């Protein structure tokens, strides 16, 4: 693999992906791993912005993108019909991250962790490629051995440790 290492956290809506990603980010930060994230807004519609701000007005007036910076905070507002995941990855690569963590985009080809909340969610595992580890919510789902992947309860710190070690190994080998 070539830096940055790309890793996905996927699951159905309301499976706990964002909470999981936030905990993972803290753990990766504690381990000195520089991470940027891509979040797929899969709930329909465009993400909310403050339409009254100058950058939004610039885009509304015809700019493809508007960048605002102040006291170290950088905000990029860009609009066009479609953005491929590859374009998003390219854009974030400018920050020279060790890892790009993607929340969502479940059918992409990158290595991933899958979160299953209910028994019905197991069907998702059967449709995905690149699964490295599985996280479950309900104790009765813990027997996921048929998938031949490590599996952990979402609150089990061993699972987070597994991902950290996996990413460290990928960084060493990149």
Automatic annotation (TrEMBL):
A Pfam short name: MobB
Name of the protein: Molybdopterin-guanine dinucleotide biosynthesis protein B
Gene3D superfamilies in UniProt: P-loop containing nucleotide triphosphate hydrolases (3.40.50.300)
NCBIfam families per record: mobB
SUPFAM superfamilies named among the record's database cross-references: P-loop containing nucleoside triphosphate hydrolases (SSF52540)
Encoding gene, per UniProt annotation: mobB
Recorded coiled-coil stretches: none
Domain Molybdopterin-guanine dinucleotide biosynthesis protein B (MobB): residue ranges: 6-121
Superkingdom in the source lineage: Bacteria
């Amino acid at each position: 693999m070539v830096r940055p290492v790309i890793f996905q956290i996927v699951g159905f809506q309301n499976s706990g992906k964002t909470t999981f990603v936030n905990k993972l980010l803290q753990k990766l930060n504690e381990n000195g791993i520089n991470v940027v994230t891509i979040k797929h807004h899969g709930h329909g519609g465009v993400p909310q912005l403050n339409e009254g701000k100058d950058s939004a007005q610039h885009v509304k007036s015809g700019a493809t993108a508007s960048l605002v910076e102040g006291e170290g905070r950088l905000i990029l507002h860009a609009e066009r019909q479609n953005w491929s995941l590859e374009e998003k990855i390219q854009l974030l690569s400018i920050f020279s991250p060790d890892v790009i963590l993607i929340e969502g985009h479940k059918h992409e080809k990158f290595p991933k962790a899958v979160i299953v909340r209910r028994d019905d969610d197991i069907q998702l595992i059967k449709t995905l490629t690149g699964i490295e580890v599985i996280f479950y919510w309900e104790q009765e789902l813990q027997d996921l051995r048929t998938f031949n992947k490590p599996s952990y309860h979402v609150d089990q710190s061993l699972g987070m440790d597994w991902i950290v070690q996996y990413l460290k190994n990928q960084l060493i080998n990149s």
